[in-house]
Amino acid sequence: MPVIMGTAGHIDHGKTTLIKALSGIDCDRLKDEKKRGITIELGFAYLDMPDGQRLGIVDVPGHEKFVKNMVAGAAGIDFVLLTVAADEGIMPQTREHLEICSLLGIREGIVAVTKTDTVDEELLELALEELRDYLSATFLKDAPIIPVSAHTGQGLDQLTKALQEKIAGLQSAESSDLFRLPVDRVFTMRGHGTVITGTLISGQVGVGDALTIYPEGTWTRVRSLQVHGHSVESAHAGQRTAVNLHGLEVEDIERGDVLARPETLFPAQIWDVEITMLPSSPKALKHRKEIHFHHGSRETLARVYLFEGEQADPGDSLLAQIHFPAPMVGVYGDRFVIRSFSPLRTIAGGKLLNPCGLKMRRSTRNLDFLQSLRNAEPREIILSQLEFAGASGLSLAKLRILCNVSSKQLSKILQDLGARQEIFLFDRENLGYVSGSYVQQATEDLLGFIEDYHQKNPMKLGVSRGMLTSNWGRKLPPKLVHFLIERCLKQGRLVAEQEALRLPEHSITLASDQTKLKDDLLQAYQQGGTQPPNLNDVLERLAVSRKEAQAVLQLLVDEGRLIKLKDGLFYSAEALETIRSLVRKHFQENSELSPTDFKELTGLSRKFSIPLLEQLDKEKLTMRVGDVRKLRKGA
Q: Taking the model in full, what pTM does it have?
């Protein structure tokens, strides 16, 4: 498993010098760094361990003006090497760096007491005692403390041995295989073009892979890869990686951007988070306060909206929303650091609960939703997110970033929840899921709508699919409406009859006079055959008004016993089938059918011919090509 170690410690406490003594690599590469003798930008090195494993190293600045660069470097490291100079002891950035590491979720480390050659044994022992006392309340309370001197070589072998033991003891936890690489450097190499570097925090990438630069959404492709200065065909999580990108200029990408595969991350301007205030914070964090927000290698201004109270006091842990001026991309469980707007000081950090947040008011429902994401298992997160999403549902790609597990584990969870009908896959094309509780509620609403329709329209067979989609389901995804209908049909809770959908218990009961009218109307059109009577003549003979006959006529149409060609013109089903048979027979010997051919074939006048030809087109038996008709394939 590739391992990344990050340095931490106050300015001029020997971080860079110690790394050079261990690895032979000078991490200060800038002229200004050489001139001033301090680290300004991130530095990178590696150390080949005795067992053959290569340890990646991120050397961070110690000066308080460059803490933002330190935070960018700390993202993605596995453990920290804290340096404390024997002649100065614990200093402001010693404390702040350690607090930042804690806020970023780093729980492993080694302590190196540097510059031991500048103090006598008594002062060294005092420095060690002070250090042990301070570390007793931190995550480094049990960490090995090793006195070293980069100049004399004292303790370097012992430190190397401690590094070897730390690497061997790190647990490899199953993590997301979603490829993400936060960019911490962008530069141009002659003959190669634009190159970015960063710590590959999850997944893997290979030469030729198509990638997207988030949050902008710019497309690119991997031209070549390097890990610790060596060309490779693929890079994996935990490795310091340089990526040569195709078709991009340096201006197209900046520190803080994230490389990932297309359509795997979702930029948003609101995040739901859990904030943890440092006990050492000098003051409370107030509701709606502007802050400096650090995530991955990105630093941005943001505003915090608290869900619990008007302020977060030192030591508090509470729920909030972060509103950004521009979209950000993240994944559930990502860590972040908050620094006060002025003066610049680390005051809090926390955990990302929902990277696809929506503007929410303080309410019991919204608070309960955020509470459900705290320390939740992936299964619980999926159920909570789908429940909150309601009719919109969530895609597989979004669920992947909302619970941050491997694709294999996510697939297993979704299959299990689907088998229990706690969730449903309603959109197979786009892999869209919806909660089981919503499906149950929506199904009852759908059936209730149809029941109400039956009561208001007792003479109609049922509701058309089109009407359900445009009326009851107008605010729902069309594929969800289709899914609900098909599920009801499969369960027998709905019946499809002709073009209508009805409840199983619904039937049309006609009064005796309506039954007679229905029989008389049908008989009139059946007797008329392929030259049906005029509707007004039929109604006059039966002594009924059009209004009185309208519902009965519609019922005959719904049942498929009459076919309405246009207003006032109906054909019996038998007569229309006779016409279809004549047309099919014609096409057995001919490739096309003109209006004149049709009139000769049926013996009908233009009054009937044109509506009939249009009806056959509508039924997709024929299709119009210029002035003639042709038989459709498969007809």
A: 0.78
**What is the residue whose two structure tokens read 């200060």?**
28
Backbone phi, psi, residue 56, to 5° = -80, 145
Q: Give the type of residue at 523.
A: Q
**Is the peptide bond prior to 343 cis by the omega test (within 30 degrees of 0)?**
yes
**Does domain 512-631 sit in CATH 3.40.50.620?**
no
Helix (H) or strand (E) holding 268: strand 268-277
User: Under CATH, which number does the domain 3-169 receive?
Assistant: 3.40.50.300
Kindly state the tokens that stand for 266: 């979702």
Which tens digits make up the pLDDT trace of 528-576?
Answer: 999 999 998 888 888 888 888 888 888 888 888 999 998 889 999 999 9
Do the Cβ atoms of 271 and 330 come closer than 8 Å? yes
Q: What DSSP element (H or E) covers 236? A: strand 234-236
CB count, 10 Å around CB of 518? 20
Structure tokens at 635: 């007809």
- Are the C-beta atoms of 297 and 255 separated by less than 8 Å? yes
* Residue 520, CA distances (Å) to 517, 538, 542 in order: 5, 9, 8
Instruction: Provide the CATH topology of domain 268-370.
Output: Elongation Factor Tu (Ef-tu); domain 3 (2.40.30)
pLDDT reading at 259 higher than 90? yes
For residues 83 and 110, is the Cβ–Cβ distance under 8 A?
A: no
